[in-house]
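hey so i finally got around to running the thing on that chain from the lab meeting. sorry it took forever, my laptop kept dying and i had to restart like 3 times. anyway pasting the input first so we r on the same page abt which one it is
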Amino acid sequence: MNHYRVLANSSEEQVCRLASTVLERYGTSQVKILSGPRQGLVMLRVRETVADSLFHAGEVLVTEVKLELDDQFGFGMIIGDSPRHAMGNALVDAALRKGGEVADWLTQELTVLDQHITTHNQREQALVASTKVEFERM
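ok and heres what got predicted. didnt touch it at all, straight out
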């Protein structure tokens, strides 16, 4: 499981809930913000499926945060202008890198979130598939 993908596809409320729990469990820890939250632009790479090649579709606005939780680096980046979401991503990332009991708990929570995201995407794909037009039959 890629925790960056799960955090990026989770809602801001879900990520902030996890980040709040991290802060509660590391109550005596020090959080040092290295940079951000700040906005920037990154290139959006898209795979063209016929030739199976990558191309740059344009630039996307992102918000990124770099921080340390007890000298453990954490990074968060999210599409759009969402400083809370990026900060939550960075805190969760730092706690996962730190390891231990909190990281184990976070891994379990992220696995559940990943399952919810997968289920939601499958439902959405089924809805889209139901509107598919078969031009050969027309």
